[in-house]
Design a protein that fits this description.
Blueprint lengths: L1 H11 L3 H18 L5 H16 L3 H18 L5 H16 L3 H5 L1
Helix pairs in contact: 1-2, 2-3, 3-4, 4-5
């Protein structure tokens, strides 16, 4: 959690490279300790997606959001609030690119 929190701090300061490094450390630890199909691992993917979206790296953000979504659907189910958060983030990603039709899907 500490790596994630430091990543959030750097992101809020606009220090995106440092944020990405800390988020990736958080993801790596969560995958090793909790496993690739753990909800907290999905959260790490989601946070990296948000960081990348904020930098306009939409294709990369989509990949991380999809990793998060796949884990959350499999582990938590399609109707879980955390899964809904990822659906919303993907829709916002499409909206920010002007892909309004995809945002509604």
């Amino acid at each position: 959690i500490t790596y994630n929190n430091i990543g959030q701090l750097f992101q809020s300061q606009g220090k995106f490279e440092q944020a990405f490094e800390y988020y990736m450390n958080s993801l790596e630890i969560r995958e090793k300790v909790l496993g690739k199909d753990h909800p907290n691992t999905a959260t790490a993917y989601n946070n990296i997606g948000q960081l990348l979206k904020s930098q306009g790296k939409f294709e990369q953000a989509f990949e991380y959001y999809m990793n998060s979504l796949e884990i959350r659907e499999r582990v938590l189910g399609k109707d879980h609030p955390n899964t809904a958060t990822t659906y919303n983030n993907i829709a916002c990603l499409f909206e920010s690119q002007g892909k309004f039709e995809q945002a509604f899907e």
